Every structure is written in structure tokens, then in C-alpha cells.
Amino acid sequence: MIEKFNPLLEELNKNIDELSLPHHPVELYDPIKYIMNIGGKRMRPLLTLLGYKLFADDYQKAMPAAMAVELFHNFTLVHDDIMDEAPLRRGKPTVHNKWNQNIGILSGDVMLVKVYDYFLDLDIEPSKLKSILGKFNVCAAEVCEGQQEDMNFETSDNVSESEYLEMIRKKTSVLLGFALEAGAEIAGATEVVCRQIRDFGVNLGIGFQLQDDLMDVYADQAKFGKQVGGDIIANKKTMLLIEALKKAQGEDEKELNGWLKASDFNNEEKVKAVTAIYDRLDIRNTIEERMNDYFSKAFNTLDHFPVPENKKDKIRLLAEALINRES
């Protein structure tokens, strides 16, 4: 469904294709071209352009910010894949698998530098640029905090639902909120309206991450683009596992804790066994209810945006496309 956003997608892909990078050393810059061109929904930069188009039509003015958002997102993917030891990204080898871990770290670092280059390309007054950069820095730090908390949870025996939701707010949701807010601010939206737009993105992002947790277990591998069951293998404290640990009793509790403590196991066997426990405890339906609550909060906020209804159509369509995704 996201393909319906042409010509915005065409413009984004054209800018990504024309991404200006030095040719030497190739080991540093080729991985950037690789990760930026192996697909992806372009959801976050689309949100930046759509946030702008709520208030103005000349969306090209927001394109540098959209590129900055997409570069930052891909930078986080490169480094997250290293930390997660993930073999696949968008159905292709991850950067550190295709090259090596050190190259992945350095290439990611350069991507972050390029993010600031794109922000500096914005043709806006200095005070507005300072505001956007300040908000981006808060967002970027929270993304890193969320990633660290996510890793901390792997070795914690007691992660609460509220702690998990705060972690995914930082790791996933704040970037969606910032992407929308940046576009709106560039277009001249007031600070109050920018906060409202950011809240929409944050609630959408929390629902999106809960959906991603579900898909990690229940998605079709051919469509998902990542290793199905990766969270189970890594003992990631997703909402599914937190809920299962709260509900499990008797043999289910014993078996689940056994898999969490196991250090030598067959990946496929572990994924199959833990998924079966989730099924017996009706975890899927429970998490789907929470996910839909956040999507409802997002749409309720969207309903109250102080712009004409026809201006909201594209953002509503994109949000619905995300909710109905298969990968």
C-alpha cells in the first residue's frame, strides 16, 4: 500500500540513489550505499514529508530533513544488527555479515555524520534549525537509551509492562514522532500543534513495535525479511514474553523458564516450543488488544489535528498501511 505515495516515494528514492558519498575507502562507503538501497518502507521520511504537507504543498523544502531521518534510521539498524548478531535485514545479509563488525561500526558512524549534513542543508531560519536539531538530539539520545534498556532486559529476570512500553517508546516511537514533528515545524506549524503531531507518531510507533513483536513470532518468513523467532532465540523481553511470564503456571512455567535458562539448544526447536507456550496462554490475542489500543489513541489524536480533513488523508492512509503490513 505504501507504493500509493508516489510521487513522494519516487522523490525519496531518487534522493537516496543520488546520495553523494566519497569513493574511497570503498570498505567504509559501500556498506552505506548497500543498506540504503536494499529496500525498506521509507516510512519515516514519508512521515516527515507528510507532516510538512499538512501545512504547505512545496514538500521539497522538507526533503533534506526526510533524508536525515532515513539515514539516521538506517544507521541505527546497522548498529542494532551488530548488537543483536542478526543475520538478515530486509531479507538480505546484514552489513556486518556481508563485510565485518568493525566496518559496520565505522560505516554507521559516518551515516550519523551525514545526518547532520542533511539537516544543515535545510533552507530555514537559524532559530528553526536550532530547534529542529535540538529535538533531533533528544530523539537520538532516547533511541540509544531505548536500545541499551532493551539489551539490559535480556539479562533481567523482572521486566514490567510499563518498563517495556517506555523502552519501545524510546527505541522505536520517538523517531516516528520526530519525523512528523520536523516536517510540520519546517512548514510553520505552531509548537502546540507540533507536540500534537509528535504524540500521534509516538502512539503509532508503540503500536507498530507491538505489532513487530507479534510478527517476529507469527510472520511468514518469506514476507518478514528478518529471522522469524529471533526474539525468542535471544531471550528478548518482548511484550509477548513479559505477558507469558506473568500468566504461565505449572508445566508451562517450568518449560518456559527452562528455555530461558538454556545455553545449548537448537534454535528451531526453541522457537517452536516457546511459540506453543504462547499459543496455549493466548498471548497473541492479548498483545493484539494492547497494540490496537495504541493505534486507536493515534487515530484519535489525528482526528483532532487543526487542519482540514482532506489534508489528513495521506497520513491516515499511511498509518492504515502500516497496521495492515505483512513485513
From TrEMBL:
Protein's UniProt keywords contain Transferase: yes
Alphabetic keyword roster: Magnesium, Metal-binding, Transferase
SUPFAM superfamilies: Terpenoid synthases (SSF48576)
InterPro entries hit by this protein: Isoprenoid_synthase_dom_sf, Polyprenyl_synt, Polyprenyl_synt_CS
Alphabetical list of Pfam families matching this protein: polyprenyl_synt (PF00348)
The protein's name in its UniProt record: Polyprenyl synthetase family protein
Keyword match Transferase: yes
Protein family membership: Belongs to the FPP/GGPP synthase family.
Tree of life domain: Bacteria
Transmembrane segments: none
GO MF annotations in UniProt: metal ion binding; prenyltransferase activity
Cofactor requirement: Mg(2+)
GO terms classed as biological process: isoprenoid biosynthetic process
Gene3D superfamilies linked: Farnesyl Diphosphate Synthase
